[in-house]
Design brief:
The chain is an alpha+beta fold and about 800 residues long. The protein contains 31 helices and 10 strands. About 35% of the residues are buried.
Length: about 800
């Protein structure tokens, strides 16, 4: 009840409520069906009466009876004071409700709201600001106690209890009104959060601020709901009526209840409601599902081989218990639901893993990655429901162990392309004094004064092309009002001048880069983007294009150091950052120094334009780890010499061990530079594993040739041409055993050597890199790292090395 000490209102209503005004308010109330029946009861309406006209007649009869009672009190002041009390009558007088009609009005409000008439009368003189704020707080608490979290925007008119306060809004101060509005907004968040929890749904966000202390009441309802769900589960299992799919949905809801209640409170609830067998299975579920997640978390962080070893050691016993419970006459449905949950998690992660592999294969082959990106997004959407706590691991920005392997391969291929390319011998670039060609319209493709052919570059020409646009002073790149910047326009202009344009305008009909002459022609009819045929990309869009389609146009992703090294040779290099929800940023890496903490040297347009600065200045120190770097490595950059296919064909045509060895030796030397493992070891492994190139795994059914020179298994991933199944010998418990195993298959012997080099780059062979060229040390370190099971493997390698040393 409101405190008696609340301040009296300063506004006194001079005119008291009349009987006709009273009846007018009663008429408004009768529009509410509940109020109609309540008032009709006062007039003696028989139970079950539903005729509205008759109900209204009884209602008015009841009102008149109360009014007559109050009129009688007007003729007996002692009885009036005894009925209402001096304080209440004084409060009613402030509101003009001290007459018989006014007192009748208050009594009717009390009846309809379930309140005490005298207490309600005392409130009539209270400060409406404090009164309404107090009653709103009571409303929120009451809704929470009743579990009414479905009411997201409660109004006084929705609840008979608050009938007496409906007319006070216009008497409130602006501050009070704003406080009520803010409270309503907060309640919406609170009710949404707890409503989702009660329904067993993961809340959309963190628990909101609890101004009114509703959490305790909410948790009582959560516990009641969990009790009902658990009791239904136990009854279904014991009666044989339970089935896996509904149980699976129930388990997801129980996870939400447990998180809300806390593990201790939830466990006490389990002890009260379900049997020991059910509790054991639920505990097993925690371990089984957690184990499946742990396996894939290890795949992400440490690679599939490490995860498979953990699985064999730690997860297999859980499978044995699962298999036992799947046959249990009572609890098999619960065990099956747990199995289904683990399978769903496994499938989502496996699909994401396959999408990543497919994406990299497409990227390395210069094919579109859109299909794989879409599959990865679908898998992540499932994981958002199945393993939301690990979003930092499976999210798109997380680097997986296999990403490191593939990125190394991408970088290796980029370096291979660059080998043999030399900066062009060109005359000095022309000096630029007139820049009238730098058009102001940023989206219009300009024709720069200094231009180069793709691949015909050197450092001097690259710097001249970067500087000719005068990015600091030209209006085309100057930051506009409303924080409009033109970083992407500068990068577009530079790459066009270098002869290797990146996408800024896309032809929506072909999906390809729109030609400059197309856009210039479209400009004659207005802005090209308004036709629907052409789409203009901002910095985010251009960064995504580089990431997803750039490979098709010769752009490959590299490290910051490699981007700087390429720029110093005159090769165009781009720094790009996608900002979800923003417009991103781009810059050109220009010839200069690489700073370990500040990044490469760049030139940029943006919020601040400069011709020479650091990546930290352009992108922000905190964003450097998210910046992507791309350099051009298209067909114009291909090295002179034999192609992969030509080496492959020469190798197949060779007729002696030594001839095959000499053909591959340059590749072994390159492998040493890539892996830090002496080239002699690479060559010896080739000779030993393939019998000097004469014996490689072939598929036992199809006869498919693998060109697998090193006996690399295909358990964790395939080769460039899939896998073959072939017989091999393994040393198990000291005995040689013949087993059928998958081996990676390759398109060429060059692919096999590259893959072998990538394998030796794994961290488990780091010890071999610490041997300082000691071949015996390296051989033993490789076996210790798990490369081979044969105890004589190191000596065999050394024997082979002695053979080709004599050549």
């Amino acid at each position: 009840m409101l405190d008696r000490g609340l301040a009296l209102t300063q506004t006194r209503v001079e005119r008291e409520l009349s009987a006709s005004q009273l009846m007018g308010r009663v008429g408004e109330w009768l529009g509410n069906n509940d109020f109609l029946h309540r008032l009709a009861e006062l007039g003696g309406a028989p139970e079950g009466l539903n005729n509205r006209v008759q109900l209204e007649a009884y209602a008015y009869k009841g009102v008149k009876e109360i009014l007559s009672d109050e009129l009688a009190l007007d003729r007996n002041s002692d009885a009036l004071r005894e009925r209402w009390g001096e304080d209440a009558l004084s409060a009613l007088e402030v509101r003009g409700l001290h007459g018989a009609a006014g007192r009748t009005f208050v009594r009717l409000e009390a009846i309809l709201s379930g309140r005490d008439a005298t207490g309600l009368a005392l409130e009539k003189a209270a400060d409406p600001n404090q009164l309404v704020l107090t009653r709103k707080e009571e409303q929120y608490l009451r809704l929470a106690q009743e579990g009414r979290f479905d009411v997201l925007d409660p109004q006084f008119g929705d609840d008979p209890y608050f009938l007496p306060y409906r007319d006070l809004w216009y008497e409130l101060s602006s501050e009070t009104r704003q406080a009520i509005i803010n409270g309503q907004k907060l309640w919406t968040k609170v009710a949404t959060y707890w409503g989702q929890v009660l329904n067993g749904q993961r809340p959309d966000g963190p628990q909101p601020v609890d101004w009114w202390g509703v959490r305790g009441a909410a948790l009582e309802h959560v516990e009641q709901r969990a009790h009902q769900e658990l009791a239904a589960l136990e009854q279904g299992l014991q009666s044989g009526q339970a089935s896996p799919d509904p149980i699976g949905e129930l388990l997801q809801r129980l996870d939400v209840y447990r998180k809300a209640l806390g593990a201790d409170r939830f466990d006490r609830l389990l002890e009260r409601v379900v049997s020991q067998e059910t509790r054991d299975l639920l505990q097993f579920r925690d371990e089984f599902v957690k184990g499946k997640k742990t396996y894939w978390h290890m795949v992400i962080a440490d690679g599939k081989e490490a995860a498979d070893r953990w699985d064999a050691e730690h997860y297999q016993p859980l499978r044995e218990y699962r298999d036992t419970m799947l046959k249990h006459p009572t609890f098999a449905p619960l065990a099956q639901a747990i199995q289904n949950e683990a399978v769903a998690i496994h499938n989502a992660y496996a699909d994401l893993w396959r999408a990543k592999e497919g994406w990299w294969q497409a990227y390395l082959n210069g094919e579109s990655t859109d299909k794989w990106a879409a599959q990865g997004q679908d898998a992540r959407e499932r994981l958002a429901r199945l393993d939301p706590e690990a979003a930092a691991l499976w999210g798109p920005e997380r680097t997986w162990h296999l990403d490191g392997e593939y990125r190394a391969e991408a970088e290796r291929r980029a370096r291979e392309r660059q080998q043999g390319w030399q900066p062009a011998l060109l005359p000095p670039p022309p000096r630029v004094t007139d820049r009238s060609w730098v058009k102001t319209d940023a989206a219009y493709p300009i024709q720069s004064l200094i231009q180069a052919e793709a691949g015909r570059w050197n450092r001097e020409w690259y710097e001249a092309i970067l500087d000719q646009f005068d990015v600091v002073n030209q209006e085309r790149y100057r930051p506009g009002r409303n924080q409009t910047t033109y970083c992407n326009i500068y990068v577009w202009d530079v790459t066009r001048a270098m002869g290797v344009e990146i996408a800024h305008w896309i032809n929506t009909e072909t999906g390809q880069i729109a030609r400059a002459d197309e856009i210039r022609e479209a400009y004659k009819r207005g802005y090209p983007g308004s036709t629907g045929k052409y789409r203009e990309l901002d910095a985010n869009g251009m960064t995504r294009w580089l990431r997803e389609q750039g490979q098709e146009y010769g752009w490959v992703r590299v490290t910051a150091e490699q981007a700087q090294a390429a720029a110093n040779l005159g090769i165009p290099a781009i720094a790009a950052l996608e900002k979800p929800g923003g417009i991103g940023h781009m810059a050109m890496v220009r010839p200069g120094e690489y700073h370990p903490t500040l990044g490469p040297t760049i030139a940029q347009a943006g919020s601040r334009n400069f011709t020479t600065g650091t990546a930290a200045e352009g992108f922000g120190q905190n964003n450097l780890h998210r910046v992507e770097y791309y350099i051009y490595q298209g067909p114009e950059m291909q090295p002179r010499g034999y192609s992969d296919q030509e080496i492959h064909q020469r190798y197949l045509a060779a007729t002696s061990d030594r001839e095959r060895f000499e053909i591959l030796k340059p590749l072994f030397l390159e492998a040493e530079r890539e892996s830090g493992i002496p080239w002699e070891i690479h060559a010896a492994q080739w000779a030993l594993e393939s019998n000097w190139g004469k014996a490689t795994p072939k598929d036992v059914e199809t006869g498919k040739e693998s060109y697998n020179m090193f006996g690399i298994k295909g358990t964790s991933k395939p080769g460039t041409n899939g896998v073959v199944m072939s017989w091999t010998w393994e040393e198990i418990d000291g005995r040689s055993v013949r087993v059928l195993a998958p081996f990676r298959a390759y398109n060429t012997v060059v692919d096999s050597i590259r893959d072998h080099t990538a394998v030796l780059n794994l961290p488990r062979y780091d010890a071999a890199r610490q041997c300082n060229g000691d071949l015996a040390c390296v051989a033993h370190a490789l076996r210790a790292g798990g490369y081979a099971t044969d105890s004589r493997y190191p000596q065999k390698l050394l024997d082979v090395i002695e053979t080709f040393k004599r050549w």
